[in-house]
Amino acid sequence: MTPQTRAYAAQSAKSSLALFSFTRRDPLPNDVKIDILFCGVCHSDIHTARDEWGGTTFPCVPGHEIVGRVVAVGRNVKKFKEGDLAAVGCMVDACRECRSCHENLEQFCDDLVLTYNSPDEHTGAVTYGGYSTNIVVNEHFVLRVRNSVDLAATAPLLCAGITTYSPLRHWKVGKGHKVGVVGLGGLGHMAVKFASAFGAEVTLFTTSLGKAADAKRFGAHEVVISKDEDAMKAREKTLDFIVDTVSAKHDLDAMLGLLRRDGTLVLVGLAADPIALNPFSLVRWRHSLAGSLIGGIAETQEMLDFCADRGITCDIEKINIDYINEAYERMIRSDVKYRFVIDNASLK
Ligand code: NAP
Ligand code: ZN
């Protein structure tokens, strides 16, 4: 049988992504089959394709910001029918029985199956993500998308959106809070939009000189170049909450110094290197350093609906799949405005 799914895959940590074909499972009774229209490009795709975190199984087909159209459903599927719009984020399965699953926090399930690079019990290989023409997913992990939204600009909400929405909700960020966002890439630009939509006063901390006007358009009140020591000193002890989205090693002590007493810095960025920290950065002003991983399925749907209601989308640069390797290089240079989104028609 000829493989029905065309994709782009990395064959090793050092190779560029290139054409690859494989076959998806036929939909099981609770599965939805989706023809993928758009897939966002997350920095996690780069970390994984290049095996920067360790644990990548090759070939690796990245992509977990998926929007498409349902082309088949299993006999038990209730939420979707053929022709519906649908979306898939970072997860495609979990045990559905543990405490985290019961609390709608599937991302913390021990048996979590990620959209790519997780063992796939159906094929014996690993899961393959959204740099592909179609995907088959249990309906619980498929999100509803309204007809009214811009589909390409909605795709990155499935990871960049929920990963920044969730901590802002969890720590109840809103009116009266002064919030810092570190890094203006895919996650960072959504953190600015959400924090501002929730009523907080937002300061962006960036290493890039050319992003200030965009950050203000996204809702930032102020933009600080984080390499400018005087500017950083002037903001010491001014913030209640920080979302740090940086994808590479950077100075966390400097960021913690921006917090007021009892302030919290939430790390969502997943730099491959271990973090070095001066204990005084936490101890002296009772600061908290926390982390946050994407968000549960119910919260992801809530976020998509919130965005559809409020007209919030991602700022994107649409690309054909054959631009993906160049897109990776540009992201590593922080030259992304502010999410690359693959037009999956270019895979056909
Ligand atoms: P991205 O679009 O490439 O943006 C990262 C931004 O970080 C850059 O645009 C740049 O912003 C800043 N940056 C890059 N290198 C830096 C350095 N050496 N020093 C200081 N700042 C630097 O990446 P993304 O897709 O938003 O992902 C960001 C990170 O979050 C990645 O590590 C990714 O794996 C992780 N992630 C985590 C989760 C989760 O659940 N926690 C989910 C998705 C992604 P400026 O130009 O403004 O400085
Ligand atoms: Zn992601």
Gross geometry: globular
Q: Structural class, judged by helices and strands?
A: alpha/beta
Q: What hetero molecules are in the model?
A: NADP nicotinamide-adenine-dinucleotide phosphate, zinc ion
Task: Give the CA-CA distance, first to last residue.
Answer: 18 Å
Order of helices and strands: EEEHEEEHEEEHHEHEHEHEHEHEHEHE
Sheet-strand content, in percent, reads 25-35%
Number of helices: 11
Describe the protein.
- This protein is 24% helix and 26% strand.
- The protein contains eleven helices and 17 strands.
- With 348 residues, it is of the alpha/beta class.
- The structure holds NADP nicotinamide-adenine-dinucleotide phosphate (NAP) and zinc ion (ZN).
- Residues 42, 44, 64, 90, 159 line the site of zinc ion (ZN).
Write the layout of secondary structure elements.
Blueprint lengths: L4 E6 L6 E6 L8 E10 L2 H7 L16 E8 L11 E4 L2 E3 L5 H4 L10 E2 L19 E5 L4 E2 L6 H4 L5 H11 L7 E5 L3 H12 L3 E6 L5 H7 L3 E4 L3 H6 L4 E6 L7 H5 L2 E9 L12 H4 L4 E4 L5 H14 L5 E4 L4 H9 L6 E5 L5
Helix pairs in contact: 4-5, 4-10
The chain binds NADP nicotinamide-adenine-dinucleotide phosphate (NAP) and zinc ion.
Provide a quick synopsis of the model.
By secondary structure, the protein is α/β, with parallel strands linked by helices. The chain has 11 helices and 17 strands. Helix 4 packs across helix 5 and helix 4 packs across helix 10.
What are the main properties of this structure?
348 residues, alpha/beta, 7-stranded mixed β-sheet, 6-stranded parallel β-sheet, 11 helices, 24% helix, globular, binds NADP nicotinamide-adenine-dinucleotide phosphate, binds zinc ion
